[in-house]
User: Fold this.
Amino acid sequence: MSCNGCALNNIDPTRPAMLDTYDWLNDLPDTSHMSNIVEVRFKSTRKEYFKNTNNLFLKRNDLVVVATSPGHDVGTVTLTGQLAEKQFERKIKNKERYPFNSIYRKATDRDKAVWEESKKRETPTMVRAREIVKELNLDMKVGDVEFRGDGGKAIFYYIADDRVDFRELIKVYAREFQVRIEMKQIGARQEAGRIGGIGSCGRELCCSSWRTDFTSISTEALSKQGLSSSASKMAGACGKLKCCLLYELDAYVEAGKEFPSELLFLETSKGIMKPIKTDYFAKTVWFIFENELQATPIKLSLDRIKKVIQQNKRGIKPEITPLPVEEELSFVGAQAEPILEKPKRLQKKKRYHRNNKGQMANKNKFQPKKN
Assistant:
């Protein structure tokens, strides 16, 4: 979300973009009288839905006190009216069983003061919680701690590969922090979204800026886009495949429908050619000859490939005329990276300085100094 969008909706631009929901229908009349469902955000990305049973006049970014079991919590209103109802229908699967709680009131100065005091306890509590986990030799990591608005309950977000028996841990936590304890397991993507960071693209991570739902990404998304399967290049800050691999996947799948279901080896008059790289949008494929040790990549159009396949089925081995190549390809593993040729004038200039470097040094060495 850009700062221009924040200005249109009176959103504080210093707050993370994912914590607010852009209201594309902000020029429409207020629809809070048509639905009493309200979306409320708590720490980081946690959002829940409540009912405005007291008919309070609520708008976005209002701090409200909501009912919990037991006690109460303080959160920020993000959506009201029909937009909140549509968001509820989209995100919640079992709508009939959703436990709706009520909104008590708008937060008073006293509520805000207690809430701020509770938030100050989160960082030292998280540090001490990690020390306790280490003392008990548990194979888990406490990623974050969230205190409820009334300070009577704390949620410990943790990551673990296997099932963890933390019955003893909860007893130690309750005795150490004197609050009710809730353990909530999260994945690596959720942790990266809560912590934040900068991606390889140079921008803020999608999971910490605007994404709120996380879907599993398989290596099939790589193969369909012709990308390298190198984990170091395709993995994000969470160690999993990058979420952005899904952004253009539909376009690649649609473009790939014009290609044969399986790229076969082509039989030509010079030998057998095998495919090594596909450019779906340019509708071209790079081939190399199998019998050449230092094979030069050859680019063929999709129409030409289809004709060669039909000729091979009839037993014909045609002569291949490659498309004009504007750049030289250097293949590293399964990925092809274009390396543009340098102008010959610069190559000659560098070669001249390299060859005459030693001669110039010896000449200066024996040349008498000027007084």
The chain has four domains: 3-107, 109-214, 217-256, 258-365. DSSP finds twelve helices and 14 strands in the chain. The two ends are 67 Å apart (CA to CA).
